[in-house]
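Quick one, probably user error.
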């Protein structure tokens, strides 16, 4: 199987083929995602929420991200594997950002990093890129800044914030990013940005005009039972499937139905 590369993503945008991206954080899930034909696996810092149970993405550490990423890399034969730089691993200065990106690449074997922010982090993005590490941007709702925003509602509805986002996207492209995630912004703004850039945009809650889409795997599989925001399409109800299976097991054990004659030595 031929590995998806940042170049193949650019070719996909050029020929109008949409890019399909999902998160994964462990070997078994990443294996299923990769076998199903996903183009990009994101080892997102959403692991902080869905794997560790934190309320925000802020607590997850670089070491924990590297653990998740190395598990995913061992499973991914075709997908490009991109890893989030977690909160606190790059904001200090560009040298810290570069060191964090290098640790991710060396210790996990991933193929690139994603980093939240625009012009403020230009120096860090540029320094990571200079080391030959592919970088993906992330604009709009950037969850590591949740305590600045105050809510997880849609971003850049006001013109001033929309204008900054347009400039940030162009800056990230100029620096050499291979793509940019647009999270929870109006569909028309996402279309404008996508049309203004050569590099692909990957949307989440950003409408149909992006070059590709990304979702958190636990959300789209319905493992996160209560979570049903407007932008989410739920493709399965795995919470119910798994709950039924586990209840069946509990009942079988308690009723002496399991193990049976054929399930013993
Ligand atoms: O951490 C994550 O899952 C993400 C995607 C939602 C883009 O950054
Ligand atoms: Na993230």
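Nope, works fine. Designed sequence:
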């Amino acid at each position: 199987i031929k590995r998806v590369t940042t170049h193949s993503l650019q070719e996909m945008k050029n020929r109008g083929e949409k890019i399909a991206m999902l998160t994964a954080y462990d070997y078994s899930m990443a294996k299923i995602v990769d076998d199903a034909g996903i183009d990009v696996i994101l080892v997102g810092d959403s692991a902080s929420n869905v794997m560790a149970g934190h309320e925000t993405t802020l607590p997850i550490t670089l070491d924990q991200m590297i653990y998740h990423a190395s598990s995913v890399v061992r499973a991914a034969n075709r997908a490009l594997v991109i890893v989030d730089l977690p909160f606190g691993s790059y904001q200090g200065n560009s040298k810290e950002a570069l060191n964090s990106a290098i640790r991710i690449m060396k210790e996990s074997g991933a193929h690139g990093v994603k980093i939240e922010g625009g012009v403020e982090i230009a120096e860090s993005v540029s320094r990571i890129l200079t080391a030959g590490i592919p970088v993906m941007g992330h604009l709009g709702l950037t969850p590591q800044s949740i305590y600045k925003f105050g809510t997880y509602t849609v971003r850049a509805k006001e013109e001033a914030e929309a204008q900054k986002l347009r400039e940030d996207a162009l800056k990230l492209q100029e620096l050499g990013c291979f793509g940019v995630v647009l999270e929870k912004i109006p569909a028309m703004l996402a279309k404008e940005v996508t049309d203004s850039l050569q590099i692909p945009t990957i949307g989440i809650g950003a409408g149909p005009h992006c070059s590709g889409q990304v979702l958190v795997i636990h959300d789209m599989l319905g493992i996160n039972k209560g979570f049903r925001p407007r932008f989410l399409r739920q493709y399965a109800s795995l919470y119910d499937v798994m709950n039924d299976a586990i209840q069946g097991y509990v009942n079988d054990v308690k009723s002496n139905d399991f193990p049976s004659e054929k399930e013993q030595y």
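Strands lie at 19-23, 40-43, 80-84, 112-116, 135-140, 179-183, 201-204, 212-215.
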